[in-house]
Amino acid sequence: MVGNKRLYWLMIAGLSIFAFLWLVPILWMFSMSLQPNNLLARTTSNTALGLIPIPFTFENFVRLFTLGLTPRWFLNSMVVAIGMTLLVLILSSLAGYAFARIPFKGRKIIYPLVLAGLVIPEQAVFIPLYTMFADWNLHSSYSALIAPRLAVPIGVFLMTQFFRGIPVYIEEAAELDGANRWTIFTRIMLPLSLPAMTTLGILTFLYAWNDYLWPLVSAQSKEMFTITVGLASIQSNFAQSEGLGRVMASGVIASLPVVIIFLIFQRYIVRGIALGGGK
Amino acid sequence: MQSQSTQSNRSSHFSSQSWRQNLWLKNRDSFEGYLFIAPFLFVYIIFLIYPFFKGIWISLHEWNLLAVAFNPDAKEFIGLQNYRDMLWGRGMTWGLDNLLGWRLLGLAMLAPIWWSVQRGALRSKAAIWLSLSIVLLFGVILGIHPGDDGRWYDRRFWSIVWNTLAFVLLTVPLVTSIGLGLAIALNRQSPIMALFRTIFFLSQVLSVTVVTLIWQMIFSPSQGIISNLLQVFGLEPITWITNERLAMPAIVIATVWWSMGFAMVVFLAGLQEIPTERYEAARLDGAGPWSLLRHITLPGIRRTTTLVVILQIILHFQVFGQSHLITRGGPNDSTQVLVRYIYQTAFRDSELGYASGLAVLLFVIMLIFSVIQLRLNREEGV
Fold first, then answer.
1. Is B209 exposed, middle or buried (0-12, 13-18, 19+ CB in 10 A)?
2. Which chain B residues are closer than 8 Å to A12 by Cβ?
3. Closest residue of A to B42, CA-based?
4. Where does chain A have alpha helices with state H?
5. Please, what are the domains in chain A?
6. Where in chain B does DSSP place strands (E)?
7. Do A44 and B265 touch (CB under 8 A)?
């Protein structure tokens, strides 16, 4: 038993070291964002390999919000991510409820056809999508950034699975009380599906925030970049133009929403991945 | 008036069986059903199904982005020529010794497959199909190559496919083994383990551009943290990104750091499904930690492992940002991958037709793995 305990603490020690090393890249970015630019131009390892921000400054963050396009990009990402999340939730819950509960004609054909869309990757459609949005003169707009992603059927799949798991007698009772379908859906099914909607919503938000290929292709004017694309555009030439500290501050700002959401809703994210991974 | 009549219909759903009312109910179901799915179906068809087929259509054309934008008729239908230019060459021959080492290695996969059949882990029908594909691919197809005076029509294509494959072959085993190891170590209920799980998953939620921003700094020979550390010990800095042999390992390391959390979480879910009684029973029989791991844990998550591996293969075949932003495909094309090639062919060279052909090919590769995954899931479901 004593040997087991020693082994346990040895494992904890090993894991702690590994976990620290795992965090070093993030710590380093954070630390650099808090050091003066002119220092970073000379050395990136001032204190403890640069992992501790001494000398310390907030200037990079202050500058970020007064100069440059980072605040605009941040706002764009917020609009796109929130818009996409809300729309995915609406479309997926409506369709998922119908596929799970309404025995409409053709359901057994349409549902598999919708799921078949899961095997089509973004890279297989981004060129034709580009030509379509170009024909419509819609590039560099929020709708172009949001719309293509709404078509991905994973949300419909998750919501259908969820609604199928809700016992039928709840609806039957409501139906006997004279409730129509819309009332049943909005008053009973939607409140019951709050956990599933939270999971789907968070995963959609994370995806939208981090998406790179489509915004890179579609957002052509600098003003319409999302933060992900904007960050890519300044990292290729940061040494001369922006200064390392400010680029790192942009990286911190770009990560902040997703990290906060992850820390708050970790349980939902993990469940969603386990669920989606198990599909 | 109307609401009254629907009211009576609804209650009769459970009591009366009048056929006329049933007919109305059925039609009402269909009407309402389509109303509910209409919004999704609309975007699904316009933004996924239609572009998918349009992509195939574009790939059958000589289609210059700028020319067609100017004049919609400036495209030319050329049938499968884009695919021929991609896959084929001039003066092709077949040789037994072409890529011999890799082909032998591929054929050697037959042994574990038939060993699995012997142990009853794989159905013999599946094994026959697998073996046939392996013999066809490694025995026959990979023997095709340009002869002495021939050449590939697209000199870059196959080396880019190979780079992508190398990226997948390096990344997937690393992600899977680290994810599995951490999942087994962290599969305990305690606050400190929960903290570890949070830390190891944290890098997964970052966007690709943040990951590349950090890692291109880490790998920088003049400012990078690795060089700074080496300097403390008086060692020479490593030129990761500009070295042809180290550029691919560099983006693999960054990718493993970025995407390991997903594998770990799926493994943790898989470990939860192993009944604890099995462990208790084995412990009563005097099994130690190693034998528990070998005889209960690993067999218990074999399905999960297959799933993780296939999902990773599908995911990492789509690698783009790491190559695009850390190494820019270089040096000397050594980290050029398929999606970046598609992106550049379409939006730098304006060759939409050829780029669409490449995208269709990528789709086919990923479809193969998706079908394998669906098959495995179905077997599991039975």
1. buried
2. 192
3. A151
4. 2-33, 37-42, 59-66, 70-101, 107-116, 122-135, 142-150, 154-164, 168-176, 181-183, 190-192, 194-210, 213-218, 227-235, 244-277
5. 2-57 (no CATH), 66-277 (1.10.3720.10)
6. 61-62, 76-77, 89-94, 144-152
7. no
B160-165 own/partner pairs: CB under 8 Å, 24+ apart:
B160/B333, B160/B336, B160/B337, B160/B338, B160/B341, B161/B338, B163/B248, B163/B333, B163/B334, B163/B335, B163/B336, B163/B337, B164/B317, B164/B319, B164/B337, B164/B338
Q: What are phi and psi of B131, to 5 degrees?
A: -60, -45
Q: Which residues of A touch B360 (CB under 8 A)?
A: 124
Provide the pLDDT for residue B202: 93
Full-model pTM? 0.88
Detail the DSSP E strand segments found in B25-98.
61-62, 76-77, 89-94
Residues in chain B: 382
> What is the C-alpha separation between B159 and B144, in angstroms, rounded?
15
Three-state DSSP class for A227?
helix
Query: Residue A170: what pLDDT?
Result: 84
For the stretch A85-105, pLDDT in tens is 999 999 999 999 999 988 888
Residue B267 · residue B179 · CB < 8 Å: yes
Residue ranges of domains in chain B: 2-54, 92-152, 155-381
Residues 102-161 of B with CB under 8 A from A: none
Chain B residue closest in CA terms to A251: B210
Q: Which residues of B touch A242 (CB under 8 A)?
A: none
Nearest CB to A125; choose among B55, B224, B311: B55
At residue B319, the pLDDT reads 93
DSSP B72: T
**Alpha-carbon radius of gyration of chain B:** 27
Q: Enter the CATH code of domain B155-381.
A: 1.10.3720.10
Which range has the top average pLDDT, A56-60, A139-143, B7-11? A139-143
Which of A98, A244, A262 lies closest to B37 in CB terms?
Answer: A98
Rounded to whole angstroms, the Cα distance separating B320 from B324 reads 6
Q: Least CA distance to A175: which residue of chain B? A: B10
Share of chain B above pLDDT 70, in %: 92
CB B211 within 8 A of CB B218: no
